[in-house]
Inverse folding.
């Protein structure tokens, strides 16, 4: 099935290095405003990092230009044999014109020239990218959905009782190695392991944990809100990582329980303690994102008070000898 062409033929797709940076800045500003309105997430920190790379003409990606106005942009990052599509964003005034599809096509065309790329992932929080969604599926990508959820933070969450023999305490700096192991084991056999290849190895989980605790991509890390569950022996069996994504808005960026300890209420206890710490620190709202196919997690979060706010598709693709990336699925 062929995707629809651009409605406005005047729109041109150019590489970021050739784009009008002033026009691109206005588009970045619009995206930040939309994140605040839709997700209550102050995205200015990560956005500024992306802009700095764009100013240096080192951002791999494309911009859709309608005359002197930037209508949309997309960028990607290649690490070894893996490519991560970082974002596909189209201004609200230009949505529905096929720009999202053209930006995705431009990335695909570039990746077709890079045989070393064997895996492509797209985990960006998309808004209105319906034609890009269809194109991903036509090109053979596997599709899942992620659900962004929020709740009002209220007193009393720390009253949740947990299983006997489980100790809950705040995160400490030397918890990193054990946490990476727990995260890795908790994702075996899950949909998230398919979406994000970092979950496939302990090393990848350590890289992900570094992003969550040392960088601003998922907000400002809050060690006092983040919690660890352990046995009395000190062995870690669960962890929840929390961050600040806006004034008064906290985010649970990671929650994992060791498979041998799942089903005992440890996840609920960790969430309750984190919510209580959010409350003590003056947060009014808490959020998280979950893969919709993870029905157990969806049920847990909903029972804790989280409600869906935004659903968006995520994609992954593995190249092999019988499937060429630029080919369509018939």
């Amino acid at each position: 099935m062929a995707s629809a062409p651009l409605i406005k033929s005047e729109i041109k797709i150019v590489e970021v290095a050739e784009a009008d940076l002033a026009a691109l800045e206005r588009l970045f500003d619009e995206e930040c405003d939309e994140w605040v309105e839709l997700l209550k997430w102050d995205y200015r920190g990560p956005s500024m990092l992306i802009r700095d790379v764009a100013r240096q003409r080192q951002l791999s990606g494309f911009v859709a230009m309608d005359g002197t106005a930037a209508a949309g942009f997309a960028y990607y990052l290649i690490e070894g044999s893996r490519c991560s599509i970082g974002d596909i964003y189209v201004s609200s005034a230009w949505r529905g014109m096929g720009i999202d599809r053209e930006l995705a096509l431009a990335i695909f065309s570039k990746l077709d020239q890079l045989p070393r790329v064997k895996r492509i992932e797209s985990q960006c929080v998309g808004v209105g990218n319906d034609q890009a969604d269809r194109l991903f599926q036509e090109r053979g990508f596997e599709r899942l959905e992620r659900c962004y959820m929020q709740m009002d933070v209220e007193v009393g969450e720390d009253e949740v009782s947990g299983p006997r023999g489980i100790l809950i305490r705040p995160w400490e700096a030397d918890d990193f190695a054990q946490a990476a192991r727990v995260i890795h084991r908790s994702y075996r056999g899950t949909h998230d392991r398919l979406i994000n290849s970092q979950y496939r190895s302990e090393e990848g989980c350590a890289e992900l944990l570094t992003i969550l605790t040392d960088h601003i991509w998922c907000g400002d890390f809050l060690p006092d809100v983040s919690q660890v569950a352990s046995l009395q022996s000190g062995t870690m069996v669960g962890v929840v990582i929390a961050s600040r994504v806006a004034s008064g808005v906290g985010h649970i960026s990671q929650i994992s329980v060791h498979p041998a300890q799942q089903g005992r209420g440890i996840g609920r206890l960790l969430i309750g303690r984190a919510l209580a710490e959010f409350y003590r620190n003056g947060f009014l709202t808490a959020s998280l994102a979950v893969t919709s196919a993870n029905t157990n997690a969806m049920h847990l979060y909903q029972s804790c008070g989280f409600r869906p706010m935004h659903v968006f598709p995520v994609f992954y693709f593995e190249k092999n000898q019988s499937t060429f990336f630029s080919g369509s699925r018939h």
The longest helix spans residues 21-39. The first strand starts at residue 12 and ends at 15. The chain has a mean pLDDT of 91. Residues 12-138 form a domain with the Aminopeptidase fold (CATH 3.40.630.30).
